[in-house]
Amino acid sequence: MKYIVAIDEGTTSTRAVLYDLTERKIVKQRATPISQIYPKPSFVEEDANEIYAHTLSSLVEILESVSDVGDIAGIGITNQRETVIAWDKKTGKPLYNAVVWQCRRTAEFMRELSAKYGKIIRAKTGLVMDAYFSASKIKWLIDNVPEIKEKTAKNEICFGTVDSFLIYKLTGGKSFKTDVTNASRTMLMNLNTLDYDEELLSIFGIPRAALPEIVACDAKAGYFTYNGKDIPLCGIAGDQQAALVGQGCLLPGQSKATYGTGLFMLYNLAENIVISEHGLITTVGYKIGDKVAYAFEGSVFNAGSAVQWLRDDLGFFSDAADSEQIALSVPDNGGVYIVPAFTGLGAPYWNSDARGIITGLTRGTKIAHITRAVLEAMAYSAKDLTDVMKAESGIEPEELRCDGGASANGFLMQFQANLSGIPVNRPAEKESTALGAVYLCGIGTGVMRLEDIADYRRTEKMFMPATDENDKYLINYKEWKNAVRKCVLE
User: Fold this and answer.
1) For the chain, what is the HEC assignment?
2) Which pairing describes strands 3-9 and 195-196: parallel, antiparallel, or unpaired?
3) Of 98-112, 162-176, 310-324, which has the strongest mean pLDDT?
């Protein structure tokens, strides 16, 4: 076998990559943007048909670039998590738009549910009572879309996260499966049993028969037939867990931060299930064969999306990469602090009512100050998370491994190191999420070994903290925390 293909179906784009097993690197990729739909304030949706169409076209283009598809060991899948799709069990036709993880339509319902079931759900799932997760989105679909309610009663429906939808479609409806990492984000799976919990299913009124089978990350979930060849779909994981594997964080205490649409930090807990007391999520990091690793996770809903906002809605620049030089054109943020809580605050605050805020504006404020403040906000959010993870684990992190689109921003990475006081390690290959799917697929198909994965990662640059200026950065962080408090009060 010469290659592995990985599908990376993210929130704002769908891509497929071709990984060369001999060269140990991605040699080709194809990406297509995904449109987001905002039917009401705080409602976020996507067209499930568009998701599949772009996935299929990206996949086919990659397959066409290979002279013999028989050289492909398998196709791994990694995806935006918590996003829910409902489709007809017989036809595979989506019955409503995909309800995206950022969507806040069920926030009030989750607040009401928390008083009665919050402790039970937290203990069983490791999750906090928030609209972020899948279960309340599925309940909303059942309660508010008549066709979905009718088909649910008749057992003619499938509910799933994006991975299970893609597996179903790519296998022609022959396979209805999800992996354990995606299942751990539904609020329906018990962390101890790694299966759907009957009490949780009852609380949300969701039938087990409408949900996909849960399998390990390296399990063969089905086959995609192309040009007469059956290619295994193998190596399935939610995007952040895939990045954990892709960054080689396979030992207890190793952590990574992904700067994408949101900011997601995962911290390997090995086989230990630890329920956080300070706003972290406990989730499944990965399951390979019978080996399960759990992880702390901190989820910040808006990070790179704030840079997109500056680019697309405010017209500050035409290319997100320009934000680095614009930020560096001023010596500091000019007293401007931004909390981009467009869809509420995630970890460690978990306040769905919070909305974005800008403080410190003066007549001297320039585009550069606001741009810099947006980038700094990502670093402040990451420090929120590293401080909690350090306190609850009792382990001082040696470094923070970073990936995602914004990790290419040198200003942000250096600011992050200076603020956190720990080195920031940026990999040579920025596509850690896709690499995680590649590695899991390689393990599942037998062309890679788990013990070799850590050696595959190469560092492109290490950003060392400027410890002599730490006091200045802590003062900035204190001012940002003041802005967060105003954001919550408002």
Assistant:
1) CCEEEEEEECCCEEEEEEEECCCCEEEEEEEEECCCECCCCCCCEECHHHHHHHHHHHHHHHHHCCCCHHHEEEEEEEECCCCEEEEECCCCCECCCEECCCCCCCHHHHHHHHHHHHHHHHHHHCCCCCCCCHHHHHHHHHHHCHHHHHHHHCCCEEEEEHHHHHHHHHCCCCCCEEEHHHHCCCCCEECCCCEECHHHHHHHCCCHHHCCEEECCCCEEEEEEECCEEEEEEEEEEHHHHHHHHCCCCCCCCEEEEECCCEEEEEEEECCCCCCCCCCEEEEEEEECCEEEEEEEEEECCCHHHHHHHHHHCCCCCCCCHHHHHHHCCCCCCCCEEECCECEECCCCCECCCCCEEECCCCCCCHHHHHHHHHHHHHHHHHHHHHHHHHHHCCCCCCEEEECHHHHCHHHHHHHHHHHCCCEEEECCCCHHHHHHHHHHHHHHCCCCHHHHHHHCCEEEEECCCHHHHHHHHHHHHHHHHHHHHHHHC
2) unpaired
3) 162-176
Q: What pLDDT does 489 receive?
A: 60
Q: pLDDT averaged over the chain?
A: 92
Model pLDDT, residue 237: 96
The tens digit of pLDDT for each residue in 105-121 reads 999 999 999 989 999 99
Per-residue confidence at 431, pLDDT binned at 50, 70, 90? confident
Based on C-alpha coordinates, what's the Rg of the chain? 21
3-238: CATH class? alpha beta
Condensed to tens digits (0 to 9), the pLDDT of residues 144-159 reads 999 999 999 999 999 9
Could you report the per-residue pLDDT of 8-42, keeping only the tens digit for each?
A: 999 888 999 999 999 888 999 998 989 999 999 88
**Over 80: is that where the pLDDT of 361 sits?**
yes
Contact partners, residue 145, CB within 8 Å, separation at least 6: 86, 95, 96
Mean pLDDT throughout 438-458?
Answer: 90
